[in-house]
Amino acid sequence: PQCLELDLDHEPLVGLSVAAGSNVAESLKRSGFADDRGLSIPLMRKLAEEKGFEHFLHGSVEVRDEKYRATLAVHSVDAAKNSVEVQAEDGDVFSLCDKISTSVQQSLDLPPEDLEATPDLPARDVSTTSIEALALLAKATATNAFDNDTDAALALIDKATQIDPSFAYAYKFKSQLLLSHNRWEQVGPTITAALQHDYRLADSSKYALRVMKLWFLDSKPKLAVELAREYSKAHPRDLSALQLLSMMEIMHGDEEAGLRALENLQEVDDRPIYQFMRAQTLLNMGRTEEALPLLDTFLDSGNKEIEEGQLSQALLLAAKATRKMGKHEAAK
């Protein structure tokens, strides 16, 4: 499944707790599953809803007469809506990816502005021409998400880039993993390698890497923020761009601008996590009275959309903010 979505996937960049990551594995373990195979549709729907997704896919790939045939069902987390079946057949894996991703995108009935924000590019152009390298990246993604084993995932990515040294998407994924685990000393060479082959990346990925290079390698935070602003202005519905902009503004010390970016994010994507992030920013700015209602709304939004770590952190922040306002019993 990861291979099929490679050319549609705009992953959040650095350390933002949005709908992805190793918590999927924890949710599966709590439900009695070691990995993502053999799940019932109701459980898939529950997991998708917990992570804030609007849709989820399931299906199979088989080989018939030397051709790959993929059959997928596209479901909404709203059980009242009908699923859509998508089927494609091809003797070439990359062509199959393109057929499937195009069909899935059409089945979602997305507004034109969202389609423009996520261009559906040929898999060969934005990934690799090597089946072996693609398989290794898919395994790395699963190893990171389901086994929570970053070192093993990084080793698999390194094998993929040894097979295809121009596999820019793999370098980009590696840089995200390194940054999320604060391995700063390894980030530079990885970003440099990705940018050497940025002709194999979608525009949003190129932009993100250039922002990261300006900030982390060139020590030019002002230019990094300016680039983030310009790109977000040109692509106002690109979630990854807005997420990166909010982080850059806050890291650069302009918390008001970071707050505005988070508000813009929430207009595009109304997941409760952005209320939490706005509340955190307001608390850092000393605006406790404005932050508390956002924390209350976040905590009242239903735990199905809140991961355990976020819930604990939000409760702790709410308690500290309430105490700061002199309401000691409520804080307790």
* Gap between N and C termini: 46 Å
Give the strand tally.
3
Sheet of most strands: 3 strands, antiparallel
Q: In what order do the strands lie side by side in the largest sheet? A: 1-2-3
The sequence of SSEs as H and E is: HHEEEHHHHHHHHHHHHHHH
Low-confidence stretches: 1-22
Coarse shape = globular
What level of helicity do the residues show? Answer: 55-70%
Derived structural class: mainly alpha
Strand content: 5-15%
Number of helices: 17
Explain how this protein is built.
This protein has helices at 23-30, 41-50, 93-107, 112-117, 123-126, 131-146, 150-163, 168-180, 184-196, 203-217, 221-234, 239-251, 255-268, 273-284, 288-300, 308-324, 328-331, and strands at residues 55-64, 67-76, 84-90. The protein is mostly helical and 332 residues long. A three-stranded antiparallel beta sheet has the order 1-2-3. α13 (255-268) packs antiparallel against α14 (273-284). The chain is globular. Mean pLDDT is 80; it is low at 1-22.
Question: What can be said about this structure in brief?
Answer:
The chain has helices at residues 23-30, 41-50, 93-107, 112-117, 123-126, 131-146, 150-163, 168-180, 184-196, 203-217, 221-234, 239-251, 255-268, 273-284, 288-300, 308-324, 328-331; strands spanning 55-64, 67-76, 84-90.
Using brief descriptors, characterize the structure shown.
single chain, 8% strand, globular, 61% helix, 332 residues, mainly alpha, disordered N terminus
